[in-house]
Amino acid sequence: TINLGQLEPPSARQRTRRVLVGDVPVGGGAPVSVQSMTTTVTADVDATLRQIAELTAAGCQIVRVAVPSQDDAEALPAIARKSPIPVIADIHFQPRYVFAAINAGCAGVRVNPGNIRKFDDRVGEIARAAQAAGTPIRIGVNAGSLDPRLLAKYGGVCSEALVESALWECSLFEEHGFTDLKISVKHHDPLVMVRAYQQLSRQCDYPLHLGVTEAGPAFQGTVKSTAAFAILLHQGIGDTIRVSLSAPPVEEVKVGAAILESLGLRERRLEIVSCPSCGRAQVDVYKLTEQVQAAFEGFPIPLRVAVMGCVVNGPGEAREADLGVSSGNGKGQIFVGGEIVATVPDSRIVETLVDEALKIAEQRGMDSDGLQD
Ligand code: SF4
User: Within its chain, how far is the Cα of 300 from the centroid?
Assistant: First the structure.
């Protein structure tokens, strides 16, 4: 069994080699990127591109599409050409889809050469085609796909088995001189996953794609992914992340982006500093917070907005916010930079906050066209 005490102490960000996924660098000190996977049928080009656009708007930087059929493979050129972010083709067994993806101009392929070798040994050809096109390949190992040989050796799935499997998969490409690789070693248990990535990062310098696989529904998956990613990223391990949720992929992207923002690895856009409410609250804090969140979604400058349920502790607790409100007696005290600038009825709190935020945006010389009502 593993417990937190056995995990490694914090260390500096670990240096990995760099691969280029389209125009997004991964590894080698590049900013940690967020990725997700579409849930549309890839062959439905319009639906897939619509979902990619939605993911991009939420902060997704790399997107993966599943390629389980010939129709999907035939859709790749159009998707790769029209997608605003790099597209990775996810392929399990069929070498011909790998060649199709490379020829289609996909920015990367996720495929395990062990699977390819089992059915039709064209690993060398794939290595040469990927090398010629400059297409990186991700090797993705998880509990479900572990080689029976390793399951027998280790008596079941464990971090050591995941790592050995990943490095063996890499060796199948390395023997053909291909090293433009990224690796993932996913597990549904965050601690097994953390340990696998820690071990892997000691044994190779390939960029690492972090993921807790089959993490579950939104709440559980968010907690598991956050717990695992926070440990690893704090230790300097991980170059790109994918949060897996049994929920629409845009939610995965929002969670991934928020994790990076919380760890100071990506510039924070909107932060709502809202109180948990208590017996002193003089407003429905939950409702007001939701309204404020909706009003500021997509605001064009980074902002920290405080929503406090009472005037007793409100302003003091929210002093570091750019602006905020403390409620009391049917009114809201609006403060900017710690100073009270207005007192308005509850019904005008949100619009006044937005007005004040626009003034801040103007002062900072930023375009505020992106504001959504
Ligand atoms: Fe309670 Fe006021 Fe603090 Fe909110 S700001 S938690 S209402 S004391």
Answer: 21
Rounded CA-CA distance 268/270 in Å is 6
pLDDT, tens digit, 9 for 90 and up, residues 87-119: 999 998 889 999 999 999 999 999 988 887 777
Task: Give ligand 1 pocket residues (Cβ under 6 A).
Answer: 275-278, 280-281, 308-310, 312-314, 317
Which atom, in ligand 1's list, is nearest to the CA of 279?
1
CA of 121 to the centre of ligand 1 (A): 65
> How are the residues of the chain apportioned to helix, strand and coil, as percentages rounded to the nearest 5?
45, 20, 35
Q: Which residue ranges in the chain fall short of pLDDT 70? A: 1-13, 314, 366-373
Is 310 labelled a binding residue?
yes
What is the reported pTM? 0.88
- The ipTM estimated for the assembled molecules is 0.99
The verdict on whether residue 275 carries a ligand-binding annotation is: yes
- In this structure, the strands spanning 19-21 and 24-26 are antiparallel
Ligand 1 atom nearest the C-alpha of 311 is 2
| pLDDT tens digits for range 340-359 | 899 999 999 999 999 999 99
The terminus-to-terminus CA distance of the chain in angstroms comes to: 51
Q: How far apart are CA 193 and CA 244, in angstroms?
A: 13
106 in a labelled binding site: no
